[in-house]
Structures are given as C-alpha cells and as structure tokens.
UniProtKB/TrEMBL annotation:
<feature type="domain" description="DNA/pantothenate metabolism flavoprotein C-terminal">
    <location>
        <begin position="10"/>
        <end position="229"/>
    </location>
</feature>
<keyword id="KW-0210">Decarboxylase</keyword>
<keyword id="KW-0460">Magnesium</keyword>
<keyword id="KW-0288">FMN</keyword>
<keyword id="KW-0479">Metal-binding</keyword>
<keyword id="KW-0436">Ligase</keyword>
<keyword id="KW-0456">Lyase</keyword>
<feature type="binding site">
    <location>
        <position position="108"/>
    </location>
    <ligand>
        <name>CTP</name>
    </ligand>
</feature>
<comment type="pathway">
    <text>Cofactor biosynthesis; coenzyme A biosynthesis; CoA from (R)-pantothenate: step 2/5.</text>
</comment>
<comment type="function">
    <text>Catalyzes two steps in the biosynthesis of coenzyme A. In the first step cysteine is conjugated to 4'-phosphopantothenate to form 4-phosphopantothenoylcysteine, in the latter compound is decarboxylated to form 4'-phosphopantotheine.</text>
</comment>
<comment type="similarity">
    <text>In the C-terminal section; belongs to the PPC synthetase family.</text>
</comment>
<dbReference type="GO" id="GO:0004633">
    <property type="term" value="F:phosphopantothenoylcysteine decarboxylase activity"/>
</dbReference>
<protein>
    <recommendedName>
        <fullName>Coenzyme A biosynthesis bifunctional protein CoaBC</fullName>
        <ecNumber>4.1.1.36</ecNumber>
        <ecNumber>6.3.2.5</ecNumber>
    </recommendedName>
</protein>
<feature type="binding site">
    <location>
        <position position="177"/>
    </location>
    <ligand>
        <name>CTP</name>
    </ligand>
</feature>
<feature type="region of interest" description="Phosphopantothenate--cysteine ligase">
    <location>
        <begin position="15"/>
        <end position="237"/>
    </location>
</feature>
<feature type="binding site">
    <location>
        <position position="173"/>
    </location>
    <ligand>
        <name>CTP</name>
    </ligand>
</feature>
<comment type="function">
    <text>Catalyzes two sequential steps in the biosynthesis of coenzyme A. In the first step cysteine is conjugated to 4'-phosphopantothenate to form 4-phosphopantothenoylcysteine. In the second step the latter compound is decarboxylated to form 4'-phosphopantotheine.</text>
</comment>
Length: 237
C-alpha cells in the first residue's frame, strides 16, 4: 500500500501502547531496571497516530528525547514507573480500547522488600543477597480477561541460536500469554535494544508467521499495524 492509501487506515480505533523499561525500587535511591530505550513502542504509538488512531502511550522509563520526538496531538501520554504502576495504567487505558500493544520491557521480578532508608555497605559487608519475587504478568492478565473485539499484541525479545528455535520459543510464549499477535524480536548485545533499527517476525494466534519486517523502528511499527489490521479482518469483533 502506498503511504497515501493507508494514511488513515487506523481511524476510529483507540489503541494503547506500553513502552520503555519498568524500574523496581530497592531503596530510595536504587532500582532494578533494564536497557530498553522505549524507541520501538514509541514508534508504534506515532505510527498509529499518523494512521488516524487515537493513542494512549503508557511509558515507563525511556531514553531522553524519545518521547518528545514522537509526540502528536493524537497521543495522550501516561507515565508509569514500576510494573505495578504500568499494569494499573494499561488496564485503565485498555477499557474501551480496540488494541493493546505491550511493547514495554517489564521487569520479571522485583525486590521482595523496599528499604525505606538507603542500604548501607556497613549493614552487609562483603556480599549482599537480595530476595526477588515475581511481578504480575500484565500481558497474560489481558489475555485471560479477554474482551470481544479487543486485539492484544505482545512483544518477545529472545536470544535464540537459530530461526527455528526463535519461532518455537515464540509460539510457546504466544500460547502462554493468550495474545492475538506476538512480535518476535531477536536481541543480542548490539541488536534491538538501544538501536535505531530492528528486525521482527510477527506470529499470529495460530502460531503462523503473519508478517516479517526489518528496517527502521518506524518501518517495523507500520508492519505491526498492518498485521493488527489483517488479524482484525480475519476475526471481526
Ligand atoms: N510482559 C508483561 N508483564 C510481565 C512480563 C512481560 O506484560 N511481568 C509482557 C511484555 O511486555 C511482552 C511480553 O509479556 O509483551 C513478553 O515478555 P517477555 O519478557 O519476552 O516474556 P516473559 O513471559 O517475561 O518470559 P521470559 O522473560 O522468561 O522470556
Ligand atoms: Ca521477561
């Protein structure tokens, strides 16, 4: 499709996109975080807005300048720090939404206890053990509490040695999450995170490859929205 033809093909849809990395506090000055820049999710939000959707962008920690570059009058921004905050914000925004895309890099664990004073070396000389507990799985929750007509899209960043293994891991994850689409992203130390471009395979609910795309994060974002539209046509509300 040309740019002009698909210009407003998401008009009338309300989409929610989460982006960035959640941070789990350890004490008043420290957290457990990850290297997500928030660029892919933010590009998804901008692409949807440019194609006519109303967008709620739920942003955890993102790199400086990323959000500013992507803002549009059709995007409303909600900030969230921790996984619990992000879960709340996504569920609130998702009520009445047509599509929810979980592009955020969500912490899998959080410290079991948050110290109310800065942890001092003196209190644990030589080594320190920090107990972690699992966070809630926001995407799996959305997959469980399905609403007719709502499309749920997950992301998975995997480090698999072969394409087959990548697809196999993706299929298992898709089933575990109960999502309609899973955007599979192979990451290493130099690909995906913190980089300007990306390569993804989008799996449909049946586990088949729906779309493959590579290039700028915007190009990948447009391909993901194409896959969302196609899956909504296959299974109308
Ligand atoms: N996700 C989520 N809540 C979590 C963890 C992940 O909503 N607590 C979402 C992510 O936003 C992403 C998808 O689930 O859309 C897959 O995340 P990923 O980290 O690949 O999957 P996990 O289930 O956490 O499995 P693992 O990290 O062990 O591969
Ligand atoms: Ca994870």
């Amino acid at each position: 499709l040309s740019l002009v033809e698909r210009e407003q093909d998401l008009a009338g849809l309300h989409v929610v996109v989460s982006t960035g990395g959640t941070r789990e506090p350890l004490d008043p000055v420290r957290y457990l975080g990850n290297r997500s820049s928030g660029r892919q999710g933010t590009a998804l939000a901008r692409a949807a807005a440019d194609r006519g959707a109303r967008v709620t962008l739920v942003a955890a920690h993102v790199d400086d300048g990323v959000l500013e570059d992507a803002m549009s009058p059709r995007i409303s921004l909600v900030r969230a720090g921790t996984t619990a905050d992000l879960g709340e914000a996504v569920r609130t925004a998702a009520s009445g939404a047509d599509v929810v895309v979980m592009a955020a890099a969500v912490a899998d664990y959080r410290p079991a206890e948050v110290a109310d004073r800065k942890l001092a070396k003196e209190s644990s000389p030589g080594a320190r053990t920090i107990e972690l507990v699992e966070t809630e799985d926001i995407l799996a929750g959305l997959g469980r509490d399905r609403v007719p007509g709502r499309t749920i899209v997950g992301f998975a960043a995997e480090t698999a040695p072969t394409r087959d293994e990548l697809l196999e891991r993706g299929r298992r994850k898709l089933a575990r999450k109960g999502a309609d689409l899973l955007v599979l992203n192979e990451v290493g130390w130099s690909v995906g995170f913190e980089s300007a471009s990306n390569a993804v395979i989008v799996l449909g609910a049946d586990g088949d490859v729906a779309v493959e795309a590579s290039g700028s994060k915007r190009a990948v974002a447009d391909a993901v929205w194409d896959a969302v539209l196609a899956s909504r046509m296959d299974r109308p509300a």
